């Protein structure tokens, strides 16, 4: 009955609602501005190539990958990946997304501290997110406070990863908007900004969910003392 009558679950409702809204917002905003082609006539892949080259990053390859909005820059193999819906598109939305990912490549090249910290947190955060909840609830069920504490510490690593992701993403978007003035018309910049702001909301939602989950675990732990 404990799991069905857990009032701490109510803590997660705001973050759940924000997550749903963020997902809707990013999809609808991207779809809206995917219908508007840039006056430059360049594809997102071409613009990201120009951005990278102008930053002295001519050796970084740009690859097309499967999926929609699966775009990313991988600092491990120094490769920028653009999804099918972005790679060959001339839309303002696609160019905005591609510029954002190019911003991550520039962060990496300039040893942007939050990005380096995030990369160092990846192994611990992945392990923490996988192990934290099982460990915590095993400790809760069997009344083992130490196991609950280990679970909380492990989950804190995942929270730290989500927290440090925010400045990384905000900075990449800021870099993108600044450089896009060279490739988009003046009236297209606000459109690209709306796409990137919508994407940023998904990271805010993820961070909020992580923080509220951590608070929930701490409350459950204290209730068992």
Automatic annotation (TrEMBL):
One biological process GO term for this chain? proteolysis
Tell me the domain of life: Bacteria
Instruction: Enumerate the transmembrane spans.
Output: 6-24, 135-161, 200-219
Keyword Transmembrane helix assigned to the entry: answer is yes
One Pfam annotation reads Zn_peptidase_2
Query: Which GO MF terms does the UniProt record name?
Result: peptidase activity
> Keywords on this record?
Hydrolase, Membrane, Protease, Transmembrane, Transmembrane helix
Q: Write down what this protein is called.
A: Putative Zn-dependent protease
Q: From what organism does this protein derive?
A: Candidatus Saganbacteria bacterium
């Amino acid at each position: 009955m404990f799991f069905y009558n857990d009032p701490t679950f109510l803590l997660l409702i705001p973050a759940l609602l924000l997550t749903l809204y963020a997902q809707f917002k990013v999809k609808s905003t991207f779809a809206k501005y995917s219908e508007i082609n840039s006056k430059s006539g360049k594809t997102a892949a071409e613009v990201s190539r120009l951005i990278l080259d102008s930053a002295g990053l001519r050796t970084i390859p740009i690859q097309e990958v499967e999926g929609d909005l699966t775009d990313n820059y991988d600092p491990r193999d120094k490769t920028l990946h653009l999804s099918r819906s972005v790679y060959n598109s001339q839309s303002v939305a696609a160019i905005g997304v591609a510029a954002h990912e190019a911003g991550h490549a520039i962060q990496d090249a300039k040893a942007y501290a939050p990005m380096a910290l995030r990369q160092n947190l990846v192994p611990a955060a992945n392990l923490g997110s996988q192990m934290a909840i099982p460990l915590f609830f095993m400790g809760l069920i069997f009344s083992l406070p130490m196991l609950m504490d280990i679970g909380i510490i492990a989950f804190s690593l995942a929270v730290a990863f989500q927290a440090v992701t925010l400045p990384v993403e905000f900075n990449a978007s800021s870099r993108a908007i600044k450089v896009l003035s060279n490739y988009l018309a003046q009236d297209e910049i606000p459109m690209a900004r709306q796409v990137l702001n919508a994407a940023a909301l998904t990271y805010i939602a993820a961070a909020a969910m992580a923080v509220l989950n951590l608070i929930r675990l701490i409350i459950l732990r204290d209730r068992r003392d």
